[in-house]
Specification:
By secondary structure, this protein is α/β, with parallel strands linked by helices. It is 42% helix and 16% strand. It has an eight-stranded parallel beta barrel with strand order 1-2-3-4-5-8-9-10, surrounded by six helices. A two-stranded antiparallel sheet has the order 6-7.
Length: 283
């Protein structure tokens, strides 16, 4: 039986640390790298990032929108790099934020995590606001193949708070999602796993108490995908202090802060970021 997503994540943490490098080919970054904003520039950019990550980090996170904007040629690049990443033993988080109900959600899961999927993703970011159960209830076949999903829970964009801080039965929507995901992980995890297959996106820039988030968990832990480091202002060296008891289950995501180093200095920029994160988690 394939290794579970939780086990694969634990192995990546042990071997490479908890840094995740986002592949976010903004038009401005392509320009900074001296590349045209077309499929050829996208292909060079994305493959260069995969090569720089291999052997230095265990996780990459392609932002699907920046490939999608180039149409079928952009998706072809994403297909190729997702398979190259797998060959390089990198876990792939497809950052697509899909969310729907019924057969539509099933089709999304199959497109990104299915046995015959063109994209070789280990996990997919999802939007839970049509109901988390619409996804969790359909996960079992994918869990058995070592896949997972990562749900939005508390995001750092200011307008998100108007929804996520709304109350449901006395607690915020974010807190309710956090508790539901934790409960689901206790059921869905493989025997002996440290981490569950269902993760949570929680922005590192947030005041967790404001969202009603108590990050201290017993039993199988919920992986936390934490954007907000680097260009958004949070220092990687502060990760341990910020996430406290949940620091050991946090995937610290960086993108522009390392990508802006350009192709020649990218590898050393990634290494510095990983070293900074390790020092912050060791505090």
């Amino acid at each position: 039986m394939p290794k579970s997503f939780g086990a694969k994540l634990s192995d990546a943490f042990d071997e490479f640390g908890q840094l995740c490098v986002g592949i976010d080919p903004h038009e401005s970054l392509l320009d900074l790298w001296g590349l045209d904003d077309d499929a050829q520039g996208l292909d060079f950019f994305a493959n260069t990032v995969v090569d720089a990550c291999a052997g230095k980090v265990g996780i990459i996170k392609p932002q699907v929108s920046f490939f999608e904007r180039h149409g079928s040629k952009g998706f072809a690049v994403l297909e190729r790099i997702s398979h190259r990443a797998a060959d390089a033993k990198l876990l792939v988080i497809a950052d697509a934020k899909r969310g729907d109900i019924g057969t539509t959600m099933a089709a999304y899961l199959d497109a990104w995590l299915g046995r015959g999927a063109s994209f070789n993703a280990d996990t997919l970011t999802i939007s839970p606001f049509l109901g988390l159960e619409a996804t969790v209830g359909q996960l079992q076949p994918y869990l058995e193949r070592g896949k997972g999903v990562i749900s939005l829970v508390a995001t750092s964009n200011p307008e998100g708070a108007s929804v996520q801080l709304s109350k449901a039965d006395g607690e915020s929507i974010s807190a309710r999602l956090w508790h539901e995901i934790h409960s689901a992980n206790q059921v869905a995890s493989a025997a002996g796993d440290k981490f569950g297959p269902i993760g949570a996106v929680i922005g590192a820039t947030l005041n967790f108490k404001r969202f009603g988030l108590d990050l201290d968990q017993s039993g199988v832990k919920t992986p936390i995908l934490a954007p907000g480091f680097g260009a958004q202002g949070v220092e990687l060296s502060d990760a341990g202090i910020l996430f406290g008891p949940a620091a050991g289950q946090t995937i610290a995501s960086v993108s522009r802060s390392v990508l802006q180093a350009g192709p020649s200095a990218l590898s050393s920029s990634i290494q510095r970021a990983n070293d900074e994160l390790r020092s912050g988690l060791d505090r």
